[in-house]
Specification:
Distance between the termini: 69 Å
Shape: globular
Radius of gyration: 29 Å
Strand content: under 5%
Helix content: over 70%
Number of helices: 15
């Protein structure tokens, strides 16, 4: 009787081994998926493919890090606007700084050529980096600048505009209300030639530097008097900006926590 049962026992043993072997495959697969799921969230946000090169890191710093530096200098803007407008022109090319420097040029405190050169350099110095990022990263820039579906469609619509329209948009990109950053990114993204982009960008920066300088120069003494009032209350304006930043940040975090609940 026992000998007759041996083949059945062996068959059951083989079946159990085969079933165990089938279970081992799926058990190993989740390990690989677990490894991929533990990948850093940074990987989903990076605009490049594969490992970042030194150029990728430099471009990312110029596009994200430099604006953060500008934001950190915001409390100093009232003081710089009155006491160092040319320096502020060099730093960020702000039109208020160009107007203020033009007003000082009218009363003879700053050379007019320096106002124009500082404003021009301040406006144009980093635009090439956005063009290069758009050309190098392509669709990856969407992950940096499209925070929702609406913005994604907006960038896609910019991508489809004709080259001549993109050239004109690059010229007027310094005009208030025009999304200059997106224009530069799309110019590189659509493979607009660098020489053509630089012609449009530099021409636009020169035009708007002359416009803001002329405005400040025409205002002259009246603008200087206003700046003196700003200087008188610069400390309080700086403190108000700092407090405002903290209040806005607190309100946003409070709303996020409330929505998460």
């Amino acid at each position: 009787m026992s000998e007759n049962r041996l083949p059945d026992d062996e068959a059951r043993f083989k079946e159990s081994e085969s079933s165990d072997s089938h279970h081992e495959g799926p058990d190993e697969a989740p390990d690989e998926s677990t490894d991929s799921s533990t990948e850093s969230p940074w990987a989903a946000l990076k605009p490049w493919q594969g490992k970042a090169s030194r150029l990728d890191k430099v471009l990312l710093f110029l596009i994200i890090g430099v604006p953060l530096v500008y934001l950190g200098l915001m409390p100093l803007r009232p003081w710089m606007l009155v006491n160092a407008p040319v320096l502020q022109e060099f730093i960020n090319g702000a039109k208020t700084a160009v107007v203020a420097a033009g007003a000082y040029a009218r009363v003879g405190e700053i050379p007019l050529w320096l106002v124009i050169v500082a404003g021009f350099i301040g406006m144009a110095k980093l635009d090439w980096a956005f063009w290069l990022a758009g050309r190098r990263w392509g669709d990856g820039i969407l992950r940096l600048f499209a925070q929702n579906e609406r913005q994604l469609k907006r960038i896609e619509s910019l991508k489809r505009i004709p080259n001549w329209a993109l050239f004109l948009m690059t010229i007027v990109s310094r005009c208030p209300g025009v999304p200059g950053t997106l224009v530069y990114l799309v110019a590189g993204w659509t493979r607009m030639r660098l020489s053509l982009f630089l012609i449009a960008d530099l021409l636009g920066c020169l035009i708007f530097t002359l416009i803001w300088t002329t405005l400040g120069y025409q205002l002259g003494e009246a603008a200087v008097d206003i700046l003196k009032v700003v200087d008188k209350y610069a400390l309080w304006l700086t403190l108000a900006i700092i407090v405002g930043i903290f209040v806005i940040t607190y309100i946003r975090e409070y709303r996020k926590q409330k929505n998460a609940q």
